Amino acid sequence: MLITLGAAAVLLALLVGGLTQVSRQSQGYDATSNRTLGAQGRVVAEQSNATATSVTALLGVIQSQNRVGLQIELDSVVQQTADEATRADDVAGATPLGSVRADFAAVFADRAQAIRGLRAAVDGYLGMQPLPVAGSPDTVASTAGAETTLLSAAQATNRIAAAGALLARSDSLYRSVRRTLAAAAGHARLPQSAWVHSAAEWGLGTVATRVDLMATSPSLAPTHYLALRTVQVNPPALPTPQGGSASVSVLTPTTQISVNVVLGNNGTVDEPHATVHFTLADQTSGATSSQSETVALASDASKALQTVNFHVKPGRTYALTVSVGLPAGQTQTVGTATQYVLQVTPATCAGPDGRVSTNCTRQP
Fold first, then answer.
1. What is the mean pLDDT of residues 50-61?
2. Across residues 188-194, what is the average pLDDT?
């Protein structure tokens, strides 16, 4: 009996000693992990603070931006907060802190979501879209062919204020993570990190004022300006004969002319339905033929339209008009229309179907 009790006592001592040793080792591991989170988390928090400063500065002068510059700034801070959220998730994945780890990652995920919401609200109010990501086949940016869903001033105000509320919540969660980490093994320290320094900063009143400033900003007003960059007629005009009119383009005998146009968007908004009209009027018979081509055209971009073909008869004179269909709001008309007088040289022979023979001897 005494031997059994002694053995049990020895076993208990060994068990307690082992548990104590495991506890010491666990505490050492936790302390190291916590300090790692503090060190790596510091980098993410400081980057987030820098982005917060950029966003605050942008909102303070938003009415003085132009549309392209504002879009670039918005896209930039969205990308920065997305990168910070990814880094925070990586940092949290390397520590065993459970709920603290999840909360740390959630702070920066919320900030990224809030700034995406801010951009969407501003874009929706001003009728803008994120810019395409260079070299990336997959992008959050919409194409020029996509319609933008416009927001009212009240809708934009509410969505921006909601983004501010999400930022304030992320600040509160970060403070909680910071306190918990400081009290845990290793006593790791995270720097302060806050996006919202006063409730009024992102409140409805302040946000409504900023939305009103955007609405009345001349530099943020949308401008529509489609214009013809190049118009090319084939076959090309022959040299003007001596004594001939420079306003008349003389063509070789042909039964078809082709018109190639490059259309440019000099405005500050995308044009999803940019249209060019083509009209060919026979000056002999009075007959008129018309066609139109429509393309989606991003702001500050140009695009070649599909070739437009018209049937003509040798010996006839035609008036060709190429004109831009002006979108609502475009007042600028320079470069939006052009007209040509085309004189098709008569052919000396033709086939039985009336078509010009390729073996004809043509008049000069």
1. 96
2. 93
- How buried is residue 274: exposed, middle or buried, by Cβ count under 10 Å (0-12/13-18/19+)? buried
In this structure, what are the phi and psi dihedrals at residue 134, rounded to the nearest 5 degrees? -60, 130
37/295: higher pLDDT: 295
Q: H or E segment at 294?
A: strand 288-297
Q: Dump pLDDT digits (tens) for 224-256.
A: 999 999 999 999 999 887 777 788 999 999 999
Supply angle C-alpha 340, 341, 346, rounded to 5: 135
Angle at 294 between CA 288 and CA 300, to 5 degrees: 125
For 30, the token pair is 């936790």
Is residue 123 within 8 A of residue 148, CB to CB? The reply is: yes
The mean pLDDT of the chain is 86
Lookup result for tokens 């306190």: 179
Cβ(328)–Cβ(294) under 8 Å? no
Burial 30-65 (b: 16+ CB within 10 A, else e): beebbbebbebbbebbebbeebbeebeebbeebbeb
* Least confident window among 36-40, 63-67, 222-226: 36-40
If one counts every other C-beta atom within 10 angstroms of the C-beta of residue 4, the result is 8
Q: Which pLDDT score is estimated for 16?
A: 44
The per-residue pLDDT for 111 is: 98
Residues 6+ apart with CB under 8 A from 300: 68, 265, 266, 268
- Residue of 322, 330, 362, 334 lying closest to 346 (CA atoms): 362
Residue 2 burial by Cβ neighbours in a 10 Å radius (0-12, 13-18, 19+): exposed
CB contact at 8 A, 59 and 206: no
